[in-house]
Amino acid sequence: MQMPLPDPAILARKARIARRLGTVLPADALIQDEMETRAYECDGLAAYRCPPLLAVLPRSTQEVSDILRICHEEGVPVVPRGAGTSLAGGALPTADSVILGVARMNEVLETDYDNRVIRVQAGRTNLSVSGAVEEEDFFYAPDPSSQLACAIAGNIAMNSGGAHCLKYGVTTNNLMGVTLVLMDGTVVEIGGAHLDAGGLDLLGVICGSEGQLGVVTEATLRILRKPEGARPVLIGFDSNEVAGACVSDIIKAGVLPVAIEFMDRPCIQACEAFAKAGYPMCEALLIIEVEGSEAEIAHQLQLITDIARRHNPVELREAGDAEEAARIWLGRKSAFGAMGQINDYMCLDGTIPVGALPQVLRRIGELSQEFGLEVANVFHAGDGNMHPLILFDANKPGDLERCEAFGAEILKLCVDVGGCLTGEHGVGIEKRDLMHYQYNGQDLEAQLRVKDVFDPKWLLNPAKVFPLLVTQSRRSPDLAAE
Amino acid sequence: MHRPANEAELAELVAGTNTGLCIEGGGTRGLTVPGEILSTRGLSGVELYEPGSLTLVVKAGTPLAEVEALLMSEGQRLAFEPMDHRRLLGTKGTPTIGGTFAANCSGPRRIQAGAARDFLLGVRFVDGRGEVVKNGGRVMKNVTGYDLVKLMAGAHGTLGVLSEVSLKVLPQAEASATVVVEGLSLDRAIQAMSAALGSPYDVTGAAYDPQAQAVFVRVEGFAQSVAYRGDKLVQDLAQFGNPSLAREGAALWSDIRDVTAFASHSAVWQASVKPTEAPELLDRLGQIHGFAYRLDWGGGRIWLALSEDELKAAAFDTEDGRKDDPLEGLAAFDANLRQNVAQLGGHVTLVKAPKEAALPRFQAQLVPLAAIAEGLRRQFDPRGILNPGLMG
Asked: What's the domain count of chain A?
């Protein structure tokens, strides 16, 4: 994965830049020692590393504004970082960049149950937002798998989803307002506790912009009252086609489960070996969860199992109590850990139209043979978001490259069938060079123009999201002019 | 009037035009600007409908009624419940799906299901340069690049003319019930709606009619679930009065959605505020002006209306002391409303006004945001030809 070469002029000015930042930050918020900046050399995409020039850990919007103003004046690129859990390299620095970590900004600023909103500093972790309103039986709906660690700032940057977004939507559907600091230090308030935007929907375009338009320091989030209860059912099938048809029939019947998770045979095997959840050995497994009162749950599960039975399931297991429910989820929730036991793995994140599932899984199987790498599939089947996990050996020369090539083929396949390159992880550096496959030059140019407005000097996280060649003239106008 | 028959013609037309264009879908929302009319009605038809994937791809000029009829045939619907402006504004014509999204037009269910923008998955549009741009797609989860889809929803055509939209649809509800609580003051009404919306019963509508002093709370879903939740809400809301259950509420909710109560008023505004701020706002305005109002979205959406006489009376408050000029009254109330909403946090849209009025429809934004909005308009429409002046 190529990254732009660091600007030697910036590297030479490290001491001066650190001195200026030191005038607006307490000593413990500025990290310049090379041993310590190493802690910020990568995120969840650990195959790529580069220590930043400096790292800063502000505690307030004012400090963020001061940092950005100084970096803007100095012409230094800034890479915003939430909790560093990105699987796409969204927080990967370059040697001439300043990492701006918001992890210390983790306060709850206001909880308002009457208006059903919470205002938090953006470094707060996803799970601790729900934690802050739990005593009143409320929750924050988007629930990415990394929710214990990941920050709201990163959720907003990547427009994160989770297993329950079929019913509750993704981050953008639950985000009501932000305090955003622009690259020149200007602080802007967008949205708030009221619904919808007054003018253009700037909140909508900031959410998912991967830290390229501004740094979000505070967020107003919609909170919801918890449902009375929830219960899963586990259904096994002897083919992916039949499982896919069953999902489609359930949705067509007007049932809207809160989650529909799909696992294929390699994934079932790995999870079973690891977690011993008692899964049946079959080709495809669905875990479907519904919510409501006891009677409502029973009614929905009845509808679902009636439909499933028409598709001749090899296994149909309803959770009788909380313990059985936990066992049904146990295997699925340990999927990533299970794969990690076997080998290194790369987790992909394409989305496909739900109907294309059997076709896509068949083709992934063929590609697995061609590349000689094993792959297991977990899939949010209700919304088409798939997470193929490709196994490889990082210590074996050439394996990572082969794995990446295989991954790229799968993502292209997602686009070919009418889907997209990434459903919830973001583009980062990982899928940057595939953007051409989904969007033509004009489509990309329209997106670049948005960044031109928010960050005319292209200093915020500049080497991400778009193919480097496409952004070259904007990132280094002098170089391009030569 | 221009009426391109396809996207290529649309692009050619925009590229070859140097004067302002008034973009029109069905022309039912009364949002006209000076300039030659560009109708999207020639871009019509369904491209793809997959009920099992809850997705629909349709050309922007397709009549909304056609889309809704198609969805109905598969037991599905547009969950954001778009308002039909014709009854309020007395306009003719047929609303289009593109116009609905360009106006980010949502109804009472917005409070639970989300706004129009939350259901828009992908767009194709022609920007002010005459270039065709696509963004998003036809899948529910998509974070590939910037979300220009949201930016186009609610941009009222000022950044580009929509040619095709793909959207998420949802199942029709099998049943619906409305809990009615009467005899509620404004303060109590807000509290009752907050209690209902903070319950685990998935309330899909919460509105208040001050004339009837009645709060309406809607639940939808499977019949037995609706029966259960309706009963639960009746119990929960008993602390506010004497709730009753109405089984048939379709006409009631379409009246709330379309604000038909104000069909004969001369001027109507929509304010979006934090629900618990609604009483403060209405109190401040009520100290100066006579007006009528309705609440939707649990109090977060306030419809305010002035009759011809109330507009004239509002003119008394203008500085030069002129009386009886409804346009002066319109301007005075508008300024007062916008100032108060800006203080409390929120925004205002002027939805209906006398023909001669020349007031901006949308909320003026604060300086840094206005500069960003202006920058975006300049990038997407450098010659300023798409609905010029409509949004600033």
From this structure: 5
